[in-house]
Amino acid sequence: MSNNTTQTSHKPLPATRIWPKRSDSQTDRELAEGCNVADDGVTAIEAAPSRILFVCTGNTCRSPMAEGLCTVVASQLGVEIQAISAGIGATDGSTPSLNAVAVMREMGIDISNHRSRQLKAETAQAVDLVLAMTPKHAEQARAIVGTTVRVQTLGEYARVREAVDDPFGGTVERYRRTAEQIHRLLMEALSRGGVK
Q1: For the chain, which domains are there?
Q2: Which residue of 64, 86, 163, 171 has the fewest CB atoms within a 10 Å radius of its CB?
């Protein structure tokens, strides 16, 4: 009996632990550490790494995978980027999808300590760019964050017309395809040197 299925090689990325246990306010403080308030009261970013906020629906699948992958890809490309994630309709404190954890583990990235959080305007104020998984997420994110920060889809940022569909409830193979798509889009985008 012949097996016509194609085996995909999943080469692990360098082992990285992405999420220490921390509160949302601690994350926001960490992102704001590169900012100083000048004498005139204006906040300026001084030699701080670029900051990207990834957004999906529940912050348990796509955006946590994008956060983890972004950290590793940026490191591989020698680009300084801090990544965080949130969800348009997220419930604060939910654990990541088991399939997302498994697929990221295959790639050498540990997202098991990630906890979901809802997208809020104040979170977006601490970043340079919001990258949404789909055009609908981008539209919803703009309604929440206003014009204080640039909002694009990950596909637009990578200069392709491509949305990252939700693998939630799907097989581990569907999660692999999603992770591979996110990885490819990040490589295309970040190879240009960070947030532009």
Answers
A1: 48-190 (3.40.50.2300)
A2: 171
